[in-house]
């Protein structure tokens, strides 16, 4: 039975935790993150009107919103079921993420933590995501020439290299895919959702609840053994390169008579020395050697043995410099259809030097 005393101590605890949360919120408010009231976001989205819904992902629904100052934002309402994390921990994580700034990462503007609402407010990206712009239905499709595709890939690689090597603490994204690469009005790419892995405990991540949806991007050691390292992101990034070059979605399209997935298909084309067959038929006027270099980088990234994949910093170097990537490595590389053996093959990426970090201009 609840005595009066117990009521008071219970109330005392609640009050104490609310005061603590308010303190964190105030602290956050004085940082780069704005605390929004639920009502302000409600009016920004016209009461979360369906016409303002831009999409739905594993974490909840995303709305377009216009703030009172006229700024356009993307408002992501995290589904209640998955947002059971304590308010304070949630706010602390947001503080970390909001302090991470890079031109190729979507900026978190603020959040709303009221009752059981957990809402994130991001800068609005005019051209939605690569999933809609490049791989989406005809109506939303944006024609992209090779220079734009190459620039998007390089920008994305830069963003990921920053998360892996410069952000404090270092961040493994875990869900690199076309719908998480957003495009601004000038088609500059920005990686979204890079803090989501931090905002949820392991057992409620999108990946573990909807593996099938992102399987086309998952590194074998992560999908099968749950081993998560930066190299899992590198693998997914390799898949993204192949999607950008082929204009086809890795998780939706099967290739050839054997209905191979995109990565397998590319390895097959490599073996048959017809890599350029991968290229999107909509893509004309590209420099063949450039495209081939990008495909080779994708092959390096999608090797089955994680330790053989390059780091994202090395990827940036390989993509941005006109280097000659040695490709006889691929005859020896164990790729995804084979067993995930702890292969001792050493990656010889470049023509004259076995060290992948040493780039030799052609
Ligand atoms: N900042 C933003 N600006 C514009 N559109 C956005 C923004 N953030 C997300 N979107 C769009 O909202 C949709 C849903 O995004 P969301 O991140 O919730 O799901 P997803 O990327 O499909 O899957 P995941 O849950 O794995 O991230 C996507 O199509 C995305 O393009
Ligand atoms: Mg997303």
Automatic annotation (TrEMBL):
Membrane topology of this protein: Single-pass membrane protein
InterPro entries, alphabetized: CR_Ser/Thr_kinase (IPR052059), Kinase-like_dom_sf (IPR011009), Prot_kinase_dom (IPR000719), Protein_kinase_ATP_BS (IPR017441), Ser/Thr_kinase_AS (IPR008271)
GO function term, MF aspect, one: ATP binding
Cell compartment(s), UniProt: Membrane
Binding site for ATP: 76
Positions of the Protein kinase domain: 48-325
Domain of life, source organism: Eukaryota
Listed name of the protein: Protein kinase domain-containing protein
């Amino acid at each position: 039975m609840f005595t009066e005393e117990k009521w008071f101590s219970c109330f005392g605890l609640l009050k104490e935790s609310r005061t603590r949360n308010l303190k964190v919120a105030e602290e956050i408010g004085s940082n780069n993150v704005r605390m929004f009231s639920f009502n302000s976001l409600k009016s920004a989205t016209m009461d979360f009107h369906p016409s303002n819904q831009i999409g739905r992902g594993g974490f909840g629904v995303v709305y377009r919103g216009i703030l009172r100052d006229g700024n356009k934002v993307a408002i992501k309402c995290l589904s209640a079921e998955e947002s059971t994390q304590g308010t304070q921990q949630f706010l602390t994580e947001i503080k970390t993420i909001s302090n991470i700034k890079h031109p190729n990462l979507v900026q978190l503007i603020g959040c709303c933590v009221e009752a059981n609402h957990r809402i994130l407010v991001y800068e609005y990206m005019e051209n939605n995501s690569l999933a809609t712009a490049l791989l989406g239905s005809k109506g939303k499709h944006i024609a992209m020439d090779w220079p734009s595709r190459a620039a998007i890939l390089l920008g994305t690689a830069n963003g990921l290299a920053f998360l892996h090597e410069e952000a404090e603490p270092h961040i493994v994204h875990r869900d690199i895919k076309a719908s998480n690469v957003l495009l601004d009005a000038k088609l500059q790419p920005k990686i979204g959702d890079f803090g989501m892995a931090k905002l949820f405990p392991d057992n409620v991540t999108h990946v573990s609840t909807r593996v099938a949806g992102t399987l086309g991007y998952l590194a074998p050691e992560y999908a099968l053994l749950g081993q998560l390292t930066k190299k899992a992101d590198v693998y997914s990034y390799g898949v993204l390169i192949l999607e950008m070059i082929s204009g086809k979605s890795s998780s939706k399209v099967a290739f050839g008579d054997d209905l191979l997935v995109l990565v397998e298909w590319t390895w097959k084309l490599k073996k048959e020395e017809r890599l350029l067959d991968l290229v999107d038929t909509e893509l004309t006027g590209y420099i063949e050697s450039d495209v081939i270099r990008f495909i080779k980088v994708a092959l390096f990234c999608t090797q089955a043995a994680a330790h053989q994949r390059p780091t994202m910093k090395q990827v940036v170097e390989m993509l941005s410099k006109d280097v000659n990537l040695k490709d006889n490595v691929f005859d020896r590389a164990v790729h995804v259809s084979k067993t995930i053996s702890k292969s001792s093959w050493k990656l010889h990426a470049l023509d004259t030097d076995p060290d992948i970090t040493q780039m030799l201009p052609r």
